[in-house]
Amino acid sequence: MDPVVVLVLCLSCWLLLSLWKQSSGKGKLPPGPTPLPFIGNILQLDVKDISKSLSNLSKAYGPVFTLYFGMKPTVVLHGYEAVKEALVDLGEDFSARGNFPIGEKANRGHGIIFTSGSTWKKMRRFSLMTLRNLGMGKTDLESRVQEEASHLVEELRKTNGLPCDPTFVLGCASCNVICSIIFQTHFDYTDQALIGILERLNENLRILSSPWIQVYNSFPALIEYLPGGHHTILQNSDFIKNYILEKIKEHQESLDFNNPRDFIDYFLMKMGQEKYNKQFEFTFENLMNTAVDLFGAGTETTSTTLRYGLLLLLKHPDVEAKVQDEIERVIGRHQSPCMQDRSRMPYTNAVLHEIQRYIDLVPNNLPHAVTRDIKFRNYVIPKGTTVLTSLTSVLHDSQEFPNPEIFDPAHFLDDGGNFKKSDYFMPFSAGKRICVGEGLARMELFLFMTNILQKFSLKSLVDLKDIDTTPIASGFGHVPPPYQLCFIPM
């Protein structure tokens, strides 16, 4: 037989088999656009802005629909009701980690973020308990953040009111807070180790939010052998892991069981207590990867939110002025801000919430998966199916937040100017896998921002109309455009 004919027959059989697998695997999955063999629905998505594509598809298929990223089905939940029903009302059933190949390859089944089941539960429970032991939600951790805020202010003073890019200095501040928790270290802002770590964290966020990684996560087996940013992410992750591994070795030599100093000490003590447990989860691999998870999440998300927040305040000087008036009235010029002040500062609190709502930092959340076959709104989602929850659809809900595409602190204020809570405020996700460090992040955002605006006014280098707040990347995260500003001492 002609080799060409054989090839065509083989390809035809392969395509038919692919179609059969896709259709037979659907069961009672929600409806969605018809996938193509092998590539799924990738051609129907804008890989530069997946969130926008999901919003458009929801108009055709409703709040619950199915997409294929490659050969694997993914159920998409769009809108507050569907997201809340899954993550909060049925939280345990939707608590597994969904398919995220680049993260799985980096963490190799260890840590908190990219694990499920027993490992995830034990690492999360231990991390929450240890963070509380180390002061999360208490005054001793608040004093650490206040001290770091004073270092941040001093670094900003050194700019002498000249133009600067705030990316690095904000990264240093948030990184130092998490470093003090994990391995009791405070870096000088010129420390080369700190600079190297921050550069790699920033680079990883940019790559994770690029179209390339969206494609990689759909076709990891194929893309793995091609050159590209996925290799850079793994190299950067290994660099940070090696740094933390050195810190672990130092802690092993100086560990005092009667006086644990930080997260690593508590974990090493737990390892000693659990070493005879047959289902031993407290390993060096889990320690290293859990520390990396806390390190990365605790640094990059907070610093990016602060960076984006300053850009929004440059764009809206009237908002900046109102926050500074409230700081002057409640705190004054010379007293350091503290968390007790927040309850007396409704406008500032509303501004911080609106920054997080508006920037929508992680638009599609990290993927979840169902822990069992589950009936959801008359559909059947098989165990292990990946579920994407659109946080954009919640944070930008037009019924809850009129004109959601506009930055407006009034979204979190009532008619009397009092702060107004909203169940739709989910920048940290919701339910069983809500961000472990939510309390710390809220504290940092309030104390860092109030300290900056207490001491400086923000000056733009361009006209207000020329300030663009559109993210330069909209994949895994929304990355703000680069900019410079002047911190003018008050």
From TrEMBL:
Residues reported to bind heme: 435
Any one of the GO BP annotations: xenobiotic metabolic process
Record carries keyword ATP-binding: no
Membrane topology listed for this record: Peripheral membrane protein
Main location group: endoplasmic reticulum
Domain of life assignment: Eukaryota
EC number: 1.14.14.1
Names of required cofactors: heme
Keywords on record: Endoplasmic reticulum, Heme, Iron, Membrane, Metal-binding, Microsome, Monooxygenase, Oxidoreductase, Signal
SUPFAM superfamilies, per database record: Cytochrome P450
Alphabetical list of InterPro entries matching this protein: Cyt_P450, Cyt_P450_CS, Cyt_P450_E_grp-I, Cyt_P450_sf, Cytochrome_P450_fam2
GO cellular component assignments: endoplasmic reticulum membrane
Keyword NAD found: no
Location within or outside the cell: Endoplasmic reticulum membrane; Microsome membrane
Entry-linked Pfam families: p450 (PF00067)
Leading EC class: oxidoreductase
Family recorded in the similarity comment: Belongs to the cytochrome P450 family.
Name of the protein described by the UniProt record: unspecific monooxygenase
Organism expressing this protein natively: Ailuropoda melanoleuca (Giant panda)
Gene name of the encoded protein: LOC100471407
